Amino acid sequence: MNYKELVFAFNRIGIALSSETKMNKLFNLIVDEIIEFADCDACSLYIKNLDKHELIFEATKTVSLLKKDESSVFKSFSVPLTRKSISGYTAITGETVNICDCYKIGEDKEYDFDKSYDKKTGYRTVSMLSVPMRSTDGDILGVIQLINKIDKNGNIVPFSAEFEQIILSLASQAAVALSNVRLLEANKNLYKALVKSFSQAIEERSPHTAGHSKRVAFISEMIAKHINNKTEGVYSNIFFTYEKLEELKYAALLHDVGKVAVPENVLEKQNKLSDDEMEVITNRFETIKFSITLNMSDMDEIKKAIDGVDNELNFIISKNLPGFISDEDKIKVKEIGAKFYTEFDGTQHSYLTEKEIFMLTDFVKGNFSPDEWEKMKKHVSSTLDILKEVPFTEELKDIPKIAGAHHEMLDGSGYPYHLGHENIMLQSRILAVADVFEALTAADRPYKKAVPLDRSIKILEFMAKDGELDKDIVQMFLDDKLYEIYLDARDNDRIIV
Ligand SMILES: [Fe+2]
Ligand SMILES: [Fe+2]
């Protein structure tokens, strides 16, 4: 190899190594490139694990032992980090070890050759070059071992001394690439940890929804992976890469992050009126009953009137619970509320205040008044606002978009932007189905009771039929019994994301 060829090869290898972002792929790439560059029969790569004082055997390849079409799965393993092995010696001392024949290592050397691999495979290791992978700040990150240098006649020869320097430089390039991938992985792990603690922080605000995002992430990921396995039908051409699955999972974990901006009293609301507000009403009704005893003389009449007030109070209490209220009941609440009683000071008051009547009759969803419901709905735009500020990597850039559309409906009836089906990504549709199903089947919440499974399935089917949820996702979720897999995992504490 002349100088020009050498520079060219170096450059090519440098580019290849620096563009690899996956650790395992990088290790194999280093081994492949070195074998090709150095004209040797085999190459092994060890990475130092200082915490455990060991060397991890990460990748290896022996060209002459490769059979055609054979794809063997290499499993990494670790060896103790000692000067007794050649790799260990290089890793500890940082010295390059160049051996002409591994079976003739002098007694004066600290290291020796481990013949077990040769014995097992019938291979004969002759020449070996063991070089440290040194990072730019001088740390030894690992060791590369080149085995059996082949000359142009196909004979095994020793590695030349001048070749040592070239391989040493290549090993340093590999070390730089390794540092970069480690940095990238550390970054990703940091992201993951932040995402998880962020979503956990939200859920801890409300014990009633604890675990919701995690469960929604589990369902979403399961649906997406299931789509990947489809070889026919609408999803035959859709495949989520590992990165896209990660993106969806994070979006699901973060989809309700905007709930940080929802006031506590709204988030934690249980009934239409709070316990304190109900207590005021109960006390008032006691006063009403007392005023009856003061203003009436016939005992039978008094008893009848008091029973009537008790019934009215019980009715009000029952209508304070979350849930649907019929027009008939609304009228009844208003009629009770409009009645008057006389206070001790002679002043007259209505049974219920205007606000109380409003809260008991004019709620929009479950137990929310229109104003409270607006505040609750705002969590989606808050999610978007928060996530837009996060500088996600290219691979995760759609997280805000996916998460921000989890309450959008295909027919445009969702919120906050009333997006139609053409503007809602498949990932958001998956997330929407997961969100609805989790919420329906979740244990009791302040504003709703758990819905039985058969009813939850019916609701999903209706929402798909009405054009709210994606019918293909719902159909697959139900037909392929994905919900059973989820419920089984949930009920057996196997929700891991
Ligand atoms: Fe939500
Ligand atoms: Fe949600």
Number of helices: 18
Number of strand segments: 9
Radius of gyration: 35 Å
CA distance, first residue to last residue: 51 Å
CATH homologous superfamily assignment of the largest domain: GAF domain
Order of helices and strands: HHEEEHEHEEEHHHHHHHEEHHHHHHH
CATH topology of the largest domain: Beta-Lactamase
CATH architecture of the largest domain: 2-Layer Sandwich
- Low-confidence parts: none
**Major sheet:** 7 strands, antiparallel
Helicity range: 40-55%
Number of domains: 3
Query: Pairing-aware structural class of the strands and helices?
Result: alpha+beta
Approximate strand percentage: 5-15%
Give a structural overview:
The structure is a single chain. This protein is α+β, with helices and mostly antiparallel strands and 497 residues long. It folds into three domains: 182 residues, 2-Layer Sandwich (Beta-Lactamase), CATH 3.30.450.40; 181 residues, Hypothetical protein af1432; 93 residues. Helices cover 53% and strands 10% of the residues. The protein is built from 18 helices and nine strands. Strands 1, 2, 3, 4, 5, 6 and 7 form a seven-stranded antiparallel β-sheet that branches. Strands 8-9 form a two-stranded antiparallel sheet. Helix 1 packs parallel to helix 5, helix 6 runs antiparallel to helix 7 and helix 9 runs antiparallel to helix 10. The protein is elongated, with a radius of gyration of 35 Å. The model has no long low-confidence stretch (mean pLDDT 91). It binds fe (ii) ion (FE2) (2 copies). One fe (ii) ion binds next to loops.
